[in-house]
Write a structure and sequence with these properties.
With 183 residues, the chain is α/β, with parallel strands linked by helices. It is built from six helices and ten strands. It has one domain: NagB/RpiA/CoA transferase-like (Rossmann fold, 3-Layer(aba) Sandwich), CATH 3.40.50.10420. It has a six-stranded mixed beta sheet with strand order 3-2-1-6-9-10, with helices on both faces. The protein has a two-stranded antiparallel ribbon with strand order 4-5. It is globular.
């Protein structure tokens, strides 16, 4: 019940944010993310594709592609309850609207990137705490995906200040991120 209440309140705040504030704070998150040693050394970066008031990853994806890094984005496979990562070369050409309105790779452009080939994963969350615990949207796709990653892969949750809580309720199946960046 506590998770659902937190989720409902923060999702409401995300939807009600002003677009100018989203872009300003997203730029601050991007600057901090790009300044990390983990980002600088990463050759392959997986981003979530932002929607519904989340920290805007679209500009991050575009800039990372311009840097010559390999960019991966997720696609959900409901039939077996998994999330996989796929490479893209051009965000505007390679993505289409998927389930829940979340952009995903087009079928014809899918190039699966196995978890062991990722260096950095930028993780969405409804809420995070300082220990890296995260509250997702309740489907468990990212928890299962994060558990499949080799230990050497850095996972960074990005969010707005109001999404970073003193503590996030966790269950045994929840999987934390290694670092959280908030603005």
């Amino acid at each position: 019940m506590l998770k659902n209440n937190i989720r409902k309140e923060i999702l409401r705040k995300l939807r009600e944010q002003d677009e100018v504030i989203i872009q300003r704070k997203s730029s601050l998150v991007k600057r901090e993310l790009f300044a990390t040693a983990e980002f600088k050394k990463a050759k392959t970066v997986m981003y979530y594709v932002s929607f519904n008031g989340e920290v805007d990853t679209l500009m991050m994806i575009d800039e990372t592609l311009k840097m010559g890094k390999t960019v991966a984005v997720p696609a959900i496979f409901e039939e077996n309850h998994i999330l996989k990562s796929f490479g893209i070369k051009d965000r505007e050409k390679d993505l289409v609207e998927g389930r829940f309105g979340i952009p995903r790779p087009k079928e014809v452009h899918k190039m699966e990137i196995p978890p062991e080939e990722l260096d950095l994963v930028v993780v969405p969350g409804v809420a995070f705490d300082s220990d890296g615990n995260r509250l997702g949207r309740g489907m468990g796709y990212y928890d299962r995906f994060l558990k499949s990653l080799p230990d050497r892969v850095t996972t960074i949750g990005i969010c707005f200040d109001f999404q970073k809580l003193s503590s996030v309720p966790v269950d045994s199946h929840d999987f934390p991120v290694k670092k959280v960046i908030a603005a």
